[in-house]
């Protein structure tokens, strides 16, 4: 069976080809009822747009690029699910690239995306990215960009993030309310937005509860293998040593849990542990881990909506450049229960 064309849909509905085209692109010029009728007819006739042909004509490729540090990270896999939900519903393909946490790979990913004539870019910065020139130049060329999760104010684009400050504040205050006073914070590179916001939330919770901020209890890591153990050893060597650990990523949370168990530090009797993660197995760990949960899928959906609105310029006047902050939630489990007091 030959694929249906725009002309077939127009003939079926007795409307113009241009009206069909605009309706399928979800144009603001077409009313909702016409869009519904056109979409139903397109589905019935098994119409599929040809993105290559569209690109060759110099119009929209109907594809967007998503650039993330690592697809295997559960947070980013959930964010991508949200992005694909929105993009597919609005008729866009999604090209996924991963930087593996390197600046050079991030630049290479952008070049590959542009070579494929994407209509816009969704990006979460790599842990090595402190120079934003490549994104600033891309924006100046008119390419729609939306940043999500790891973002920078140096690039004047819409940003979609979790409430990193609020989540970190809530996690730290929870530890304080369970009697912890020496709370260590394991985090990642200091120039990343999520690092700065979570560190600020941690610090604010300490200060608002009458505890001093102690730089010796904070450790910055990378994404290298086997690095968490030495950081935990440094913190345990302090006098007095920490009675709780708050980690700022999935990898650090798992690494800290493993390091404490290897050193026979009992959780939660000796120390509490809480992460800032989207681990889907946190309740299966031993002990089950308390976490601040980021709304990864919702962040992906919101970021995709913002990007596609930029691409299609549906709203008049243009959307303001804003940061959309989505609330986190806290899931409390065994790793932060009150210490057992011997009778």
Q: How do you describe this structure in short?
A:
GO terms for molecular function: DNA-binding transcription factor activity; transcription cis-regulatory region binding. With 343 residues, the chain is an alpha/beta fold.
Fraction of residues in β-strands: 15-25%
- By DSSP (H or I, 4+ residues per run), the number of helices equals 12
**Can you tell me the CATH superfamily of the largest domain?**
Response regulator
Which overall shape is indicated by the principal axes computed on the Cα atoms?
elongated
Structural class, by secondary structure, is alpha/beta
CATH domain class of the largest domain: Alpha Beta
| Rounded radius of gyration (Å) | 24 Å
- The averaged pLDDT comes out at 89
- Uncertain segments of ≥5 residues (pLDDT<50)? 51-58
Largest sheet: 6 strands, parallel
Number of strands: 12
* Structural domain tally: 3
Question: How far is the first residue's CA from the last residue's CA?
Answer: 79 Å
Q: What is the CATH architecture descriptor of the largest domain?
A: 3-Layer(aba) Sandwich
Q: CATH topology of the largest domain, which one?
A: Rossmann fold
Lateral arrangement of strands in the main beta sheet? 2-1-3-4-5-11
Give helix % range: 40-55%
Along the chain, the helix and strand elements come as HHHHEHEHEHEEHEHEHEHEEHEE
GO molecular function: DNA-binding transcription factor activity; transcription cis-regulatory region binding
Protein name: LacI family transcriptional regulator
Domain HTH lacI-type: 4-58
Organism: Hymenobacter setariae
